[in-house]
Specification:
This protein is α+β, with helices and mostly antiparallel strands and 814 residues long. Helices cover 30% and strands 25% of the residues. A hairpin with a 3-residue loop joins strand 23 and strand 24. It has four domains: 120 residues, Topoisomerase II, domain 5; 79 residues, Gyrase A, domain 2 (2-Layer Sandwich), CATH 3.30.1360.40; 103 residues, Topoisomerase, domain 3; 319 residues, Neuraminidase. The protein starts with 11 loop residues before the first helix and ends with a strand.
Length: 814
C-alpha cells in the first residue's frame, strides 16, 4: 500500500464547527455582503472591472451582455453564468438602483417582476457614474490580488469616487446575518460628507439636516423623522413607506390614481392583490382596476362606485396591501474588506472618507513619483542641451549604442534613465522653441511636485482635495429628491411648525374642485375691468365658494345634506392662478350626491380673548331657517364628517358664521332684502336640530349669505354687496335698523336686469381690497376704496366686466 501520509484523528464536532465557520466567512466576505468603501459585492465589482478592461465606458458602443458575462466568468468569477447575468441586470434597473451603474439596451425586466431577456439579446456598457467608481484605478490607488487561477490580477476594492453604498443601497443574505441598506440622494449624501469632512465631531442630528431620509428610485413617501433618526443612529430600524395616490374625478365618478409605489413592491402583484380583495368581498366600493402605466410613468387607475368614500377605500389599500409597507433597515457591511459590522449613518460616511483619504494619498504619491521621474529625465535633457556639442562628439566616437550609453554616464555623470533619454532625443530638440519647451516643462513639473509633496505632508490639504472632488460630483450628478419625507410622529415637529402662517385664498367649484392660491398672484386693478383668468373649470362647472383663510386655520365644509367636514387650510394643495384644482374627495369623505354649501375658516390658536368672543356657530339655510350651536361641538370633526343641521328635503345650507353670544346677525337674500336682528333671538340648539325662522322670504327669493355685526362698534362698518352682473356697492351697517327675527327685512340693493341678483355680501371692518371671481373663473382684485358707499336702495357701480354668458360667483375681502 502506498504511503498516504499521516492520518490525524479529530473530534467530528470540532471539524464541523471549523468547516462551517470557513464556509460562513466565505459566503459573508466573497458573496453576500457589500464593502463599505465602494458599496459593491465581489460579483458587481468584477463585472465593472471586466467592463473597464473591455473598454465599455459610457462613450463606447454597446456590447452583447453574453460577452461581458463570458469575460467575468473566464477571468474573475468562477461561478454560474445566470447569477452573474442577474447581477448585471440589477445594475441596469432604474427601479432598483437610484443611480444605475450599467447602461443597458434591450429588455432588462420591469417593476412588474418580468425577467430580463436572454443575455444574447441584450447589450450593455458602463454609465458615467460607474466610470467614477473606477477613476484612478491604474494609478496604484487600490490593492490587487491574483484571480482564481493566478493568470492575472483583480482589485480587492474600487477607488470609488462616489459613496455608492448609500447612493444605491444593498440587500443580501449571508450565513446568520443579512444586510438591507436603502438608496439615498446623491446631493444630500455629498452635502453630509462635506460637512463631516469639515466637522468630524458632527452628530447624527446634525448630519440629518443634510440626509433627510432614504430616497427611493420609485419615489413614494416615508414617515416619521424620529424613526429615521433612530435607524440612522443605530444602523437598524423600520421606516414606513407609502405609495403616492390621488383621488380624481372621471366621467362623474371618483377614481384613485396611484402614481408611485413603495420601493421593492412588485406592481403586478399589487394590482392582483387589490383585485383579490375586491373578489373576496373584503374591499367594497371598487368598480374596476387598470394598470395604465406607460413609458411616461407608473399609473394604476382604480374606478370607484358612486356611493364609495374614496378616502376610506384608499386607507383600506394602505392597511391591507403593499401600497404601504416597512423598509427594515439593517446597515451591515464589510469594514476593511473582512469584518462584518452594523454601521450608523455617520459610521458609513466616516469609512468612505477614510477610503477616499487613502485613495487620494496613494494617487498623489503615484503622481509625485511620476513627476520626479520626469523631472529627472528633463534635467538630463537640459544638461545635455547645455553641452550639446560635447554630447554629440561623445556619441559619434562610440562604436555602438551600449558604448555610447556607457560613455555618456562616465563623462557627464548621467543616470541610466537620462542617458537612454538622450540617445532617443531627436534632432528637432535642438531647435530654440523645442529647447524652451523642455525648460517650461521642467518648471511645470517642479511646481507640480512641490504641490504634491505639500498635499502628502498636510492631511488638511488631502481633505480639501476630497471636498473639491465631491463638490464636482454633486454638480455633475446631483438631482432632485424623489421620495417625500413626512415628519409626522408623536412628540416630533408638528406639520404646522414647518408651514408658514400666511393668508391664502381658497377657491371651490360647484363640481367639487378646490385649490389654495396666494393672494399676490392677483394684481390690483381699477374697478370695472375684466380681471384675469383665475381658475380653469369644466364647461358645466362654476366657481361657488371663495374666501380668505390663514394657512393654519381649520376649514369647516358644510354640505347640502347638513353634515360638516374639517381639514386644515394648508392641506389644500397650492395651485397656480389658472389651475383647476384637486377634487374635494381627496380630502373629505363626501358622497357623490353631496354639495359643499358653505365654507368657514376657523382661526387656529387665536388669543384667549378672541376665542372667548367667538363661541357659537350660526347657520342659515336657503329657505331662511337659522340655528345657533356652541362652537365646541365642532372642535373634533371626524374624517367621515358629523351632522351639523337637520335640513328639509328641498332646503340647503347657505351660510355659516362665528359669533360671540352678544352679536347681531345680518342676512342678505338674492332679491336684495336684508334683515338685522340679535343673535340671542336664536336660542342655542344641538347639532341635529332644524332651527327657527330667521327671515320671511318672498316667492323665488333665497338667502345667499350671513354676516355678523359684532357687539360694540360695528355700526361704523359697511355691508358690501356683490351682484351677478359684476356690480357692487357698500352701505353703512347703521342704515339697517334692528328688527325681530322672522320679519321680511328691508331693501339692501335695487335689483334690475342690469346689475342682477345678489351673489355675495360681506361686512367690512377695515379690509382694503376686494377679490371677486366669476363662474367661469375670471378674477379681479381691486381696492375697496373704489367701491362707493351709497344708500341701501341703489343698484351700485360696475366692479367687474364680465364676458358673454358669465356671471359673478363669489367674492372675498383682504
Amino acid at each position: 500500500m502506498a504511503d498516504i501520509g499521516k492520518i490525524e484523528t479529530r473530534e467530528i464536532a470540532q471539524e464541523m464547527q471549523e468547516s462551517y465557520l470557513d464556509y460562513a466567512m466565505s459566503v459573508i466576505v466573497s458573496r453576500a455582503l457589500p464593502d463599505v468603501r465602494d458599496g459593491l459585492k465581489p460579483v458587481h465589482r468584477r463585472i465593472l472591472f471586466a467592463m473597464h478592461e473591455l473598454g465599455l465606458t459610457q462613450g463606447a458602443k454597446f456590447r452583447k451582455s453574453a460577452a461581458v458575462v463570458g469575460e467575468v466568468l473566464a477571468k474573475y468569477h468562477p461561478h454560474g453564468d445566470i447569477p452573474v447575468y442577474d447581477a448585471l441586470a440589477r445594475m441596469t434597473q432604474d427601479f432598483v438602483l437610484r443611480y444605475p451603474l450599467v447602461d443597458g439596451q434591450g429588455n432588462w425586466g420591469s417593476v412588474d417582476g418580468d425577467s430580463p431577456a436572454a443575455m444574447r439579446y441584450t447589450e450593455a456598457r458602463m454609465t458615467r457614474l460607474s466610470g467614477e467608481m473606477l477613476r484612478d484605478i491604474e494609478r496604484e490607488t487600490v490593492p490587487f490580488v491574483p484571480n482564481y487561477d493566478s493568470t492575472r490580477e483583480e482589485p480587492t476594492v474600487l477607488p470609488a469616487a462616489v459613496p455608492n453604498l448609500l447612493l444605491n443601497g444593498s440587500v443580501g443574505i449571508a450565513v446568520g446575518m443579512a444586510t438591507s441598506i436603502p438608496p439615498h440622494n446623491l446631493g444630500e449624501v455629498v452635502a453630509a460628507l462635506l460637512h463631516l469632512a469639515e466637522h468630524p465631531d458632527a452628530g447624527h442630528d446634525e448630519l440629518m439636516k443634510f440626509v433627510t431620509g432614504p430616497d427611493f428610485p420609485t419615489g413614494g413617501m416615508i414617515f416619521s423623522q424620529e424613526a429615521i433618526r433612530q435607524a440612522y443612529a443605530t444602523g437598524h430600524g423600520a421606516i414606513l413607506m407609502r405609495g403616492v395616490a390621488e383621488i380624481a374625478e372621471k366621467k362623474g365618478a371618483n377614481q384613485i390614481i396611484v402614481s408611485e409605489i413603495p420601493y421593492q413592491v412588485n406592481k403586478a402583484e399589487l394590482v392582483a392583490k387589490i383585485a383579490s380583495l375586491v373578489h373576496e368581498k373584503k374591499l367594497e366600493g371598487i368598480r374596476d382596476i387598470r394598470d395604465e402605466s406607460d413609458r411616461e410613468g407608473l399609473s394604476i387607475a382604480i374606478d370607484l362606485n358612486q356611493d364609495a368614500y374614496p378616502q376610506k377605500v384608499l386607507n383600506f389599500l394602505y392597511k391591507y396591501t403593499d401600497l404601504e409597507k416597512n423598509f427594515n433597515l439593517n446597515m451591515l457591511a464589510l469594514v476593511g474588506g473582512i469584518q462584518p459590522q452594523v454601521l450608523s449613518l455617520k459610521g458609513i460616511l466616516e469609512e468612505f472618507l477614510k477610503h477616499r483619504t487613502e485613495v487620494v494619498s496613494k494617487r498623489t504619491a503615484f503622481d509625485l513619483a511620476r513627476a520626479r521621474e520626469r523631472i529627472h529625465i528633463l534635467e538630463g535633457l537640459a544638461k545635455a542641451l547645455d553641452h550639446i556639442d560635447a554630447v554629440i562628439q561623445t556619441i559619434r566616437k562610440s562604436a555602438d549604442r551600449d558604448e555610447a550609453h556607457a560613455n555618456l554616464k562616465k563623462k557627464f555623470g548621467f543616470s541610466d534613465a537620462q542617458a537612454g533619454a538622450i540617445l532617443e532625443m531627436r534632432l528637432q530638440t535642438l531647435a530654440g522653441l523645442e529647447r524652451q519647451k523642455i525648460s517650461d516643462e521642467l518648471k511645470e513639473k517642479v511646481a507640480l511636485a512641490r504641490d504634491l509633496e505639500a498635499i502628502l505632508k498636510d492631511p488638511r490639504k488631502v481633505t480639501t482635495v476630497i471636498s473639491r472632488e465631491l463638490t464636482a460630483l454633486q454638480q455633475a450628478y446631483g438631482d432632485a429628491r424623489r421620495t417625500k419625507v413626512v415628519l409626522s410622529a408623536a412628540g416630533e415637529i408638528a406639520v404646522e411648525d414647518i408651514i408658514p402662517e400666511e393668508d391664502a385664498i381658497i377657491a371651490l367649484t360647484r363640481g367639487g374642485y378646490i385649490k389654495r392660491i396666494r393672494p399676490e398672484v392677483y394684481r390690483i386693478q381699477k374697478r370695472g375691468g375684466k380681471g384675469i383668468q383665475g381658475m380653469e373649470t369644466k364647461e358645466e362647472d362654476v366657481v361657488e365658494h371663495f374666501l380668505v383663510a390663514n394657512t393654519h386655520s381649520d376649514l369647516l365644509f358644510f354640505t347640502s345634506t347638513g353634515k360638516v367636514f374639517q381639514t386644515k387650510a394648508y392641506e389644500i394643495p397650492e395651485g397656480s392662478r389658472t389651475a383647476k384644482g384637486k377634487a374635494i374627495a381627496n380630502f373629505l369623505s363626501v358622497k357623490a350626491d353631496e354639495r359643499i354649501m358653505s365654507l368657514v375658516a376657523v382661526p387656529k390658536a387665536a388669543p384667549d380673548a378672541i376665542k372667548e368672543a367667538r363661541r357659537y356657530l350660526v347657520m342659515a339655510t336657503e329657505h331662511g331657517m337659522m340655528k345657533r350651536v356652541d362652537a365646541s361641538a365642532f372642535e373634533n370633526v371626524r374624517k367621515s364628517g358629523i351632522v351639523a343641521i337637520n335640513l328639509d328635503t328641498d332646503d340647503a345650507l347657505r351660510g355659516v358664521a362665528l359669533t360671540g353670544g352678544k352679536d347681531e346677525i345680518l342676512l342678505v337674500t338674492r332679491q336684495g332684502q336684508a334683515i338685522r336682528f340679535r343673535e340671542s333671538d336664536v336660542r342655542t340648539m344641538g347639532r341635529g336640530a332644524r332651527g327657527v325662522k330667521a327671515i320671511r322670504l318672498r316667492k323665488d327669493d333665497r338667502v345667499v349669505s350671513v354676516g355678523v355685526v359684532h357687539a360694540g362698534g360695528d355700526d361704523r362698518a359697511s355691508l358690501l354687496v356683490v351682484m351677478a352682473q359684476g356690480f357692487g356697492k357698500k352701505t353703512l351697517v347703521k342704515e339697517y335698523k334692528r328688527q325681530r327675527r322672522g320679519g321680511a327685512g328691508i331693501k339692501t340693493a335695487k335689483i334690475t336686469p342690469k346689475n342682477g341678483l345678489v351673489v355675495s355680501s360681506h361686512i367690512i371692518r377695515g379690509e382694503s381690497e376686494l377679490i371677486a371671481i366669476s363662474q367661469k373663473g375670471q378674477v379681479i382684485r381691486t381696492s375697496l376704496a373704489d367701491v362707493p358707499t351709497v344708500s341701501r336702495s341703489t343698484q351700485g357701480v360696475r366692479v367687474m366686466r364680465l364676458g358673454e354668458g358669465d356671471r359673478a360667483a363669489s367674492a372675498t375681502i383682504l
